[in-house]
Amino acid sequence: MKILAAMSGGVDSAVAAARAVDAGHEVVGVHLALSRMPGTLRTGSRGCCTIEDSQDAWRACERLGIPFYVWDFSERFKEDVVDDFVAEYAAGRTPNPCMRCNEKIKFAALLDKAVALGFDAVATGHYARLTRDADGRPELHRSSDWAKDQSYVLGVLTEEQLNHCLFPLDDVESKAHVRAEAEARGLAVAKKPDSYDICFIPDGDTRGWLEERIEMEPGAIVTPEGERLGEHRGAQAFTVGQRKGLALGRPAPDGKPRFVLEIRPKTNEVVVGPERLLAVDTLTGRRVSWAGRPVPEAEAGLPFEVHVQVRAHGDPEPATARVAEGDDGAARLVVDLHKPMRGVAPGQTMVIYSGTRVLGQATLESARSAEFETAARAD
Q1: Which of the four pLDDT bands, split at 50, 70 and 90, describes residue 45?
Q2: Residue of higher predicted confidence among 60 and 371
Q3: Any binding-site annotation on 355?
Q4: 12 assigned ligand-binding residue
Q5: Which one from 49, 61, 98, 101 is the annotated catalytic residue?
Q6: Primary place of residence (predicted)?
Q7: Which domains does the chain have, with CATH numbers?
Q8: Mean pLDDT for the stretch of residues 69-85
Q9: Residue 280 CA, distance from chain mean position
Q10: Which residues neighbour 377 within 8 Å (Cβ) at sequence distance 6 or greater?
């Protein structure tokens, strides 16, 4: 097959490309330039798409003896990831920019261009497994190494996209094995640290970065019952579950810390309360998509048992899911948790699993706590 290897500049993508070469594929490496001002992206171990990453990707391709190109996706990245991040926070939600980057850039814009150029598939260094059902349709599964499993961030992929994906690291036992393999192959990135955090916020100060892009208006910090406790500088800079930075000046009556429970953009209020009110019972998601064939119950509107995960490194929790129609006529994924989940915020992505298989995902529209709603109705 003719394979386009997405080269981030890290050890995983380098080994994935090497394995694709070993498998006999015709491989071409490409690195994505995601900013026209590289200085605005994180560097060193905290980056994933900087100039130094591009150089590391080029050196890996040189070592493997495959062609290397840099594709400029900076405009798409700004529109689909950075601007979306700002818009979501402005609406009082907490987005996951890495999920949006996978959905819109790495497995939409990149894959579309690859297919248009005649490539059969895009290979990446993600830790995940791709299998086929009895009818030959793709199924996305967790990696053999659950500790490094990245199927969560791939939950946004559709069946058509999975048909053009290749995950050569599907059988690795651990990240240590990947590094050892890279070193044995003479790849300079063998000991390069992993990337993390938001690449387009250089200093890690998300609040300060947002304040430069969103018009912040002072407003009230209130209890679920409506009691005013203090004032904030801008509701959009807060996130559900946040404890620090409230600056209320006085403790709760029981002396325990308060946490952000809800952001209310319409009234510009930040609702705070005890930690126990962060536990939610029901999750409702919009922008539903399926990673392969939906289970029959989903297509029929019937409930089905799943495990749901709301963070890349979070624990999957048992739940009952169903597909319902929202007020706007679009599909909603409704998940009733078997036990409450703590600190879930609208804007996060929930990915549902059946065993190791990724069924699909949705962007959280609401996370409901029966106790919190009872307290709020008392207002």
Answers
A1: very low
A2: 60
A3: no
A4: yes
A5: 101
A6: cytoplasm
A7: 2-191 (3.40.50.620), 215-273 (2.30.30.280), 277-377 (2.40.30.10)
A8: 92
A9: 20
A10: none
Radius of gyration of the chain, Cα coordinates, nearest whole angstrom: 22
Phi, psi dihedral angles at 270 (to 5 degrees): -115, 120
Would the pTM of this model clear 0.85, i.e. be above it?
yes
143 carries a ligand binding annotation:
no
What are the Cα distances from residue 107, in Å, to 45, 118, 351?
24, 16, 17
- Residue 216, marked binder: no
Q: CB under 8 Å to 320, separation ≥6 — which residues?
A: 303, 304, 305, 306, 335, 336, 338
Q: What is the separation of C-alpha 272 from the centre of its chain, rounded to a whole number of angstroms?
A: 26
Residue 227's Cβ-count burial label (10 Å; 0-12, 13-18, 19+) is exposed
CA quadruple 108, 327, 90, 335: dihedral sign: negative
Q: Is 61 a catalytic residue?
A: no
Among 48, 61, 98, 199, the active-site one is 199
Spatial separation of the C-alpha atoms in residues 180 and 191, rounded to whole Å: 9
What size, in residues, is the chain? 379
Q: Is 101 a known active-site residue?
A: yes
75-80 long-range contacts, Cβ below 8 Å, gap at least 24?
76/104, 76/105, 76/109, 77/32, 77/34, 77/35, 77/101, 77/105, 80/104, 80/105, 80/109
